[in-house]
């Protein structure tokens, strides 16, 4: 997975959900500092951490689709908004 894209996905999903880094950290059992470093693009998380983050967003109703240009589209159901 692309480091920059994953960082952007995490920031965007948190913004849509109105979650702080601390709230996401608690839901994914990683530290707030780890979330910060992921969002800054300093580190690509381990596969298990990445899966936990994506599952947490999926459980909240968000989905990501990879775009041909390397970007992503976030699918947000109405119930999240």
Structure description:
The protein has helices at 3-17, 21-28, 32-39, 47-59, and strands spanning 63-66, 72-75. With 81 residues, the protein is mainly alpha-helical. The model has no long low-confidence stretch (mean pLDDT 91). Strands 1-2 form a two-stranded antiparallel sheet. β1 (63-66) and β2 (72-75) form a beta hairpin.
CATH homologous superfamily identity: lambda repressor-like DNA-binding domains
How many helical elements?
A: 4
In the CATH scheme, the class would be Mainly Alpha
Query: Could you give the distance between the termini?
Result: 27 Å
Instruction: Give the number of domains.
Output: 1
Which stretches of 5+ consecutive residues score pLDDT under 50?
none
Side by side, the strands of the main sheet go 1-2
| Main sheet summary | 2 strands, antiparallel
The portion of residues assigned to helices is 40-55%
Summarize the structure.
54% of the residues lie in helices and 10% in strands.
What are the salient characteristics of this protein?
single chain; 81 residues; mainly alpha; 434 Repressor (Amino-terminal Domain); two-stranded antiparallel sheet; 4 helices; 2 strands; globular
